[in-house]
Amino acid sequence: MKKTDMRVQVTRKVLRESLVALMKTKSILNISVREICEAAGVSRSTFYTYCKDQYELLGQMEEEILDELNKLIQRHAPTGDMPPARELAMLLEDAMQYIASNSNSVQVFLSENGASDFQKKFSKYITVHVRQLKNAKNSSLIDEETLNYCSVFIRDGCTGIIQEWLKNGMNTSVHDMAKLFTKLVRGVLG
């Protein structure tokens, strides 16, 4: 049983890595199942065991990233309120470490070659969590319109900074990036 599980994990990993490698040079719209199979060294029937097409494979990978980031948020900010500065910094450092560990996928998904809804999903994800992270004690100090503008500012800023950081080969440490995000988020939301 364990041998089969290991083969399944290896096959999934190879399929995912092959898709990411192909997406570094061209859009998902121009990638076929055949190309993924050739790059992965698996048959089409093996591919179809795991997903119906390249878009489903991409969608699975995107959802996995968002699910993992959500688990980090739940661990550090289970109430949804803005955590204290130290806890927020730990949350953001864990999130940046996860992004760094999955940099190939995240970079490709946030690029123009992603041609999927990942950027929209990622932006929506950030917006939802920024709105939840506002401190319940200070919620009356931020009206809905201001909170909306703050969410857009943080969402677009965070996404842009992550894209630039990945494009530059993560030349700034995870710790320093987390410190920057902590300052920005706390500065905007107080």
Entry keywords:
single chain, mainly alpha, 190 residues, 9 helices
Describe this structure in words.
With 190 residues, the chain is an all-alpha fold. It is built from 9 helices and no strands. It is elongated. The relative contact order is 0.11.
Q: List segments where confidence is low: pLDDT < 50 over at least 5 consecutive residues.
A: none
Share of helix, binned: over 70%
Average of pLDDT: 85
Rg estimate, integer Å:
19 Å
Largest β sheet strand count, sense and barrel closure: none
Based on helices, strands and strand pairing, what is the structural class?
mainly alpha
Principal-axis shape equals: elongated
| Total of helices | 9
Order of H and E elements? HHHHHHHHH
Give a short overview:
The chain is an all-alpha fold and 190 residues long. 74% of the residues lie in helices and 0% in strands. The mean pLDDT is 85.
Please render the helix and strand layout as text.
Layout: H1 2-23, H2 33-40, H3 44-50, H4 54-76, H5 85-101, H6 103-109, H7 118-133, H8 144-167, H9 174-189
